[in-house]
Amino acid sequence: MRRLLSRIGFYVVALWASVTINFLLPRLMPGDPAQAFLAGMQGKSVTPQLLAALRAQFGVTDAPLWQQYLSYLNQLLHGDLGISNTNYPETVSQILSTSIPWTVALLGLSVIISFIIGTLLGILVAWRRGTWLDSLLPPIMTFISAIPYFWMALALVYFLGFILHLFPIGGGFDDMLDVDWTSFDFISSVVSHAILPAFTIVLGSISGWILVMRNSMVTTLSEDYVLMAQAKGLPTRRVILNYAARNAVLPSITSFSISLGSIVGGSLLTEVVFNYPGIGYALVTAIGHQDYSLIEGCFLVIAITVLAANLIADVVYTLLDPRVRQERS
């Protein structure tokens, strides 16, 4: 319990550091949200009163930095992330609440599917080491993992979407439909638009899970406790799952937690290539329009998800590995 509390304290300090950096970075960038917003008001007269009102609304002030920092922390505690100048007058919280579900649904399910399939295939390849499966699958997976992700995504979009017309090329759903999660037509459109980016994510990441699990399993299978289990005549399935795979999967658990934590931040390239309406696409749009409030909100969500995923990994690792519990006790 004491160890868990110390880890929680560490992540609280890390979260504070992330919030502080998130506060400082936009304020070190040139310009301000009010000027960026006025840049899009072509042909309209801008009075000093209008500029001052916009600066106040976007939270731009000439107060000392420490006062701005305290005001920023107070706003965070009240759930106020500011107003987006890109989607004025929408708030950052409204934009994130509509963008995050798209990202979590697409990348979350894709990463989980990739991890499960890759881990199971890695176990199978390690157990069948020396056979044709072990000689064929790892080299193919190594070749696939060497392909840059954006090239793979563009190639799949071109052949499966543009040439063969099997899947929609981009977007999260058909633009002719209204957002209605009770409509079968809308849900089927969302699923059809998500298949190609999800397939790209699974294909691009499954090779890593297979290779890591295969190598870890090969090392674990030579351990004394696995050989003893085989010598006792235990069923092969029990030896593989309860003795070898349970210990070999521990390094993958850490990588899996990092992957889950990086879902929000790692969605940028996927959503840009497929024009998918998630938080990564919102972040790219915010950077292009100097939308500092939205940039801060996106970075804050990314930091929280990464820290939360690592905390969960610590807890799960302790539950799976009794050696860690004994050491901590």
TrEMBL record:
GO terms for cellular component: plasma membrane. Pfam families: BPD_transp_1, BPD_transp_1_N. Residues 100-313 form the ABC transmembrane type-1 domain. InterPro entries: BPD_transp_1_N, MetI-like, MetI-like_sf. The chain crosses the membrane at residues 7-25, 102-127, 148-170, 190-212, 248-274, 294-320. It is a multi-pass membrane protein. SUPFAM superfamilies: MetI-like (SSF161098). Keywords: Cell membrane, Membrane, Transmembrane, Transmembrane helix, Transport. PANTHER family: OLIGOPEPTIDE TRANSPORT SYSTEM PERMEASE PROTEIN (PTHR43376). This is Peptide ABC transporter permease.
